[in-house]
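User: Before I run my own analysis I want an independent prediction to cross-check against. Here's the chain; please return only the structure tokens and, at the end, one sentence I can use as a sanity check.
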Amino acid sequence: MRSVCVFCGAKTGGSPVYVEKAQELGRLLVKEDIELVYGGGSIGLMGTIATAVMEAGGRAVGVIPKFLDEMEIGHTGITHLILVDSMHQRKQKMEAISEGVIAMPGGFGTLEELTEIITWAQLKLVKKPIGLLNVNGYYDPLLKFVDHMLEEGFLSEANRELLMSNPDPEALLAEMKEYHAMEGTRQMKPNQT
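Assistant: Structure tokens:
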């Protein structure tokens, strides 16, 4: 992987561990010569990871809607800032210029970005690894709900496997590097879609 899109919050969260893991992931991307693609913000975990990448000598590309940049949220110290017209164009561009996706802790925006990209993968519009950096068990309730979707027959096992999860940035990145996009059609179990 030469580039990874990271979805994460515009806030830093209630524990210092979120900032620490964002910095750790940023430094790891630089060590692995992987370009960061992210939402372009200078605040929260977004700003934290981008700054960590730049301070370690890496490359960070931000994609931000013009209305957010005009509110002075855009990060001015990154390699390249791409301005788009809408939140939807932001996601499309971030996906188009990245070879993998990681979701760190965040709020509604991060959750929406994650669920859209995993839906694109389920529909085979996207064939790249998608992982949760499950810092401090942040995504445990979501993973439990995803497993509930599987148990209740609303999600296939193949589609459940599209979402990786690990609390350790290095282990998650290693797992993502081993990912091979599923090709062709899959046989679904009865009552699963």
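Sanity check: The first helix runs from residue 16 to 31.
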